[in-house]
Amino acid sequence: RTSPSATFSAPSHQLFSHAMVRRLALSVGSALAASVGGAASAEKPNIVMLMPDQWRWDWDGFHKEQADLHLPTLQRIAESGTRFTFSYTPSPLCVPARAALASVRHYDEAPHVTNGQDFPTQVPTWYNAVRDVGYHVIAVGKDDLTQSIQGTKADGCRHAAELGFDSHFRMQDKFATYSGRHPIDQFSSAMANLTCGRNDSSGSTLRACNRWCYGVIAVPRIGVGHCCEVLPSRQNGWTCPVPDQVGKEQSLYVDDYVTERAERLIEQVPERKPWALQLAFPGPHPPFVITEAMNKSIGDRHFPAAFDNKLLSNELQLQVRRQYAAEVENLDKLMGRLLTKLGAFEPDSNTLVVVMSDHGEQLGEHHWFGKKRPWEDAIRVPLLVHGPGVPAGKVVDTPVSTLDAIGLILDRAGATRKEGWHTGSLQTYFQEAPHADGPLVRSGLTANHKKLDFRIAIQRINATCTLKVICCPTGCPAGNSHVPSTAPDAQLLAFNVAQDPHEAVDLSKTADAAMLVQRLPASYAEVCSPLVRVSVAGAESLVALAPPVSTASAGFV
Fold first, then answer.
1. Which of 256, 237, 334, 248 is nearest to 296 (CA)?
2. Which helix (H) or strand (E) holds 537?
């Protein structure tokens, strides 16, 4: 076993030498992998899922008016692959979202786990399914499936085999990894054997220095470390003026470190065996602690202030957004490095690449930082696919679920779905013919002893209207100034997110909203159906506030 302190000992020119030999050997005597847009090779593809944590939909480099980011890797993936512009998480919270993805089930059918709990090991996962058909499954980073106080253990082995992982380098999130006096995962174990590149504390190891920096789990707030400041909303970790204690050693920064581990684990895959990698980056989840170099990269950059936030100054919001931008741009660089080393951009590559996130980040929109909200910034995420059989340069604006990305992986691996698994797949959208309005997409969350409780249904009505309804049995979360919460009374909201992504104009009194409410889970439909009082006058007045959607084009009455 390679010791943590030896992780970076090998010269960079040696990386993937064995993997390249294997790839060349496998190609001898077989047809070349199809070019992008063509039919997939008969050989099982290798699979790469890249999943940054808490990455919102409009910070993907394609919405310059919102965030002028430098993301050449994502641009390259989009140019030679397919991008989905309305992609939604099953749930806007880490553990429930990942439990749904792992179990290939919608939120209400997935294991009922929340942050701080373990995924039940008796539940089949998609990792098990692809392993059963011959894949070597690699899990790197924050999988969030073993999040109880015991962690993944210092060797990462706790529940790894049961979940379906053959090899791994696992960690908790940026807060929990520093919990306890002793390491609870592979990352913190590695940091305990390294020295600080910068020591603003009196720590003797990099783990001790960054434990001081990031903080540990505390009640009522998490991660109250010395590198970050508390926002007026009493949220900690979104503005962090003190750099990560790696100093100038960028390679030891958490996202860089797990990328290096992924590269090395791929090298160790048994000969002539297809592999599936899930690289779950810890960033850009808060705390937004970044390195000295990352701070310099965004020092004079400007980003628009949050929509609907009267609590924070524009100066403080800019500081938050610069640090988030630095994390996203660093991730783009790391994704590019990995995919280039794998040869994923080569015309004959047989590597399927999926890039997405578990959920989004409000970044101050509607007076909130974090997730756990029904708004677009929390539930909508980037989603890009690249590889054999994936059309080049295609943009799909039909709403999809990130569960459809898991469906694509199962399809390409030739794996069998278990009973009750989500049956959708992104493969459906690769066809040349324009897709119909598309299936219903669902999301939801019940948390904080049901103080947070909402279910969401989203469907494309036509070319100008993608309708989203939100049912909150105890009132929707406060913060959206345009639709004040009715808590503790039930509340129904609806928005055309194609034209109103900030969700400022409520369209709940429309015929289409009334139809969509009926497709919510039964108990939520029962609560919110009486709140729909469709009237011609009411619908017309609401639509008039959100041009150019018209009553004729959107089907409103």
1. 248
2. helix 536-544
**Backbone phi, psi, residue 465, to 5°:** -135, 115
**CB contact at 8 A, 463 and 434:** no
State how far the Cα of 395 lies from the Cα of 376, in Å rounded to an integer: 19
Taking only the tens place, the pLDDT of each residue in 520-556 is: 999 999 999 999 876 444 444 333 333 333 222 222 2
Helices (H), 343-367: none
**Pairwise CA distance, residues 437 & 220, whole Å:** 44
Q: Which among 358, 325, 309 has a CA at the least distance from the CA of 502? A: 309
Q: How many CB atoms lie within 10 A of CB 314?
A: 11
490-519 average pLDDT score: 96
Other beta carbons less than 10 A from residue 185's beta carbon:
26
DSSP-derived pairing of the beta strands 400-401 and 82-88:
parallel
Farthest CA pair distance, the chain: 71
- At 43, list the tokens: 């050989």
Beta bridge partners of 472: 491
Question: Which of 231-240, 298-307, 320-329: highest mean pLDDT?
Answer: 320-329
Its pTM stands at 0.88
370: left (phi over 0), alpha (psi -120 to 50) or beta: left
Check if the beta carbon of residue 214 is closer than 8 Å to that of residue 352: no
Task: Please give the share of the chain, as a percent, with pLDDT higher than 70.
Answer: 86
Q: Are 540 and 525 in contact (CB under 8 A)?
A: no
SS (H, E, C) 228-255: CEECCCCCEEEECCCCCCCCCCHHHCHH
* pLDDT tens-digit readout, 443-497: 999 998 888 999 999 999 998 999 999 999 999 999 999 999 999 999 999 999 9
- From 542, 484, 490, 481, select the one nearest 512 (Cα to Cα): 542
All residues at 6 or more sequence positions from 69 whose CB lies less than 8 Å from its CB, including other chains: 59, 60, 61, 325, 328, 329, 332
Contacts of residue 530, Cβ cutoff 8 Å, sequence gap at least 6: none
Percent helix, strand, coil in the chain, to 5, is 30, 15, 55
Residue carrying structure tokens 């090298």:
267
As a dihedral over the C-alpha atoms of residue 63, residue 66, residue 68, residue 71, rounded to 10 degrees, the angle is -50
Distance of CA 3 to the CA centre of its chain: 30
Cβ pair 336, 355 in contact under 8 A: no
How far from 526 is each of 309, 440, 454, CA to CA, in Å? 33, 18, 13
**Rounded distance between C-alpha atoms, residue 210 and residue 225, angstroms:** 9
